Amino acid sequence: MGEQADGSTGAEVSGTFSAAGDEKVPKMSGGPRARVLGEVAAEVLSARREHPVRVALDGCSAAGKTTLANELAGVLRWHTAREVIRAELDYFKRAPELRTTYPIESSESYYYEVYDYDAIRERLLKPLGPGGDRRYVNGLRDTSARTQLAVPPRTAAPDAILIADGTFLQRPELNNYWDLRIYVHVTFETVLRRGAVRDAAWMDSREAAAHRYRTRYIPGERLYINQIHPADRAQLVLNNEDPATLTITRRPAPRR
Fold first, then answer.
1. For an engineered disulfide with 63, which of 27, 59, 72, 247 has Cβ 3.0 to 4.6 Å away?
2. Span 32-250: which CATH code?
């Protein structure tokens, strides 16, 4: 998800942030998207561990990750009594004043400095992993990263499922802490088109939003793709160019 000029994504959190992500999503009608989400849910449910299963939905800004993650969580809740935890990793950004290595509006700052990878690992992923105490939080700051949130720790069930979405989720700081990696693919042309429409309201115009995508988000995401090759590492790749006809590519031997 893109940020506003002050680091915000435009999303608002009122009051205390809900760490549960317990909301149900409406049951979807049939069609290719519903069938693919059913396949993905089956893959998630087959990934049994002796600790909560940690699932990453990785991809570029405006790829549709959060919508997919919410839908997947809803499908899982429909099919299993296991606890399903949602986390949007935009709630783990570093405060803007801590991003000092690169110019704040640069693609390098976006890629290297926006997210608090240590907090994601220590407060969310490691507690849910092998030997963890299962006490986690799924957010620390609002999406502007300027306001700390009162997120009480929760204790996950031993067989819980974490569905987390965000950008750069397979960076070295996080990659070994996922049990299933899903990469949501769209072209950069689609990122630009969707992002400019989605973010026009808080960037004043589509032109301003498109400029920010061209100069900051897309170059930062190119850095990630060129360094990490996230689609090659992922066990599943979803093509979300046309959300109505979502398709899936399986990667039986992911590169690590």
1. 59
2. 3.40.50.300
What CA–CA distance (Å, rounded) separates 63 from 253?
A: 24
- How big is the CA angle at 215 (ends 231 and 237), to the nearest 5 degrees? 15
Q: Judge contact between 165 and 65, C-beta under 8 A.
A: yes
Report the alpha-carbon distance of residue 56 to residue 87 in Å, rounded: 10
pLDDT string in tens for the chain (256-residue length) = 444 333 333 332 222 233 344 444 445 557 899 999 999 999 999 999 999 999 999 999 999 999 999 999 999 999 999 999 999 999 898 888 888 788 888 999 999 999 999 999 999 999 999 999 999 999 876 565 566 777 889 999 999 999 999 999 999 999 999 999 999 999 999 988 887 767 666 577 778 778 788 898 999 999 999 999 999 999 999 999 999 999 988 754 544 5
Going by DSSP bridges, is the β-strand pair 84-88/247-250 parallel, antiparallel, or unpaired? unpaired
Helix orientation angle between 32-46 and 65-79, rounded to the nearest 10 degrees: 70
**H runs (alpha helix) in 47-143:** 65-79, 107-113, 117-119
